[in-house]
Amino acid sequence: MLSLSLSTSRRGAYVVVEVTGDLDMSTAPALREELLIILWGEGRDIILDLTGVGFADSFGVHAVVAAHRWARLRGGSLCLSSPSAQVGKVLRITGIDQRIPTFPSISAAMAAD
């Protein structure tokens, strides 16, 4: 059973994707698919709001890294906002926070542009 919910909204030039649930082996494909649909459709610049994510494993991290790469290939961007302490720790340990811009809030991500 998937324990992931995704909702999207447009905020200026950005598509904000609010993620709720765990990013793991069972949910990473759904995240990857949704981000691909957005990148090939309505938006080039994505803010991935991780406020509602309590857990992320290597599969979830890989899905985020792949989406970041796809965004850059399309001339866009993907950044992260509001990771929980656990998810932030995973991002730091893997070095992802050095490769993908990570911000404490959506407004901080938008202001960094």
Description:
By secondary structure, the protein is of the alpha/beta class. It has a single domain, classed as Transcription Regulator spoIIAA (2-Layer Sandwich), CATH 3.30.750. Helix content is 43%, strand content 33%. The chain has helices spanning 28-40, 58-73, 85-94, 96-99, 106-111; strands spanning 4-11, 14-23, 45-56, 77-81, 102-103. It has a five-stranded mixed β-sheet. Helix 1 runs parallel beside helix 2 (58-73). The chain is globular. The model has no long low-confidence stretch (mean pLDDT 94).
For the structure shown, list the relevant keywords.
single chain; 113 residues; alpha/beta; Transcription Regulator spoIIAA; globular
What's a concise summary of this model?
With 113 residues, the protein is α/β, with parallel strands linked by helices. Helices cover 43% and strands 33% of the residues. It is built from 5 helices and 5 strands, in the order E-E-H-E-H-E-H-H-E-H.
Number of helices: 5
Number of separate domains: 1
What is the terminal-to-terminal distance? Answer: 37 Å
The whole-angstrom Rg is 12 Å
Binned strand content:
25-35%
Unreliable stretches: none
Q: CATH architecture, please?
A: 2-Layer Sandwich
Placed side by side, the strands forming the largest sheet appear as: 1-2-3-4-5
Number of strands: 5
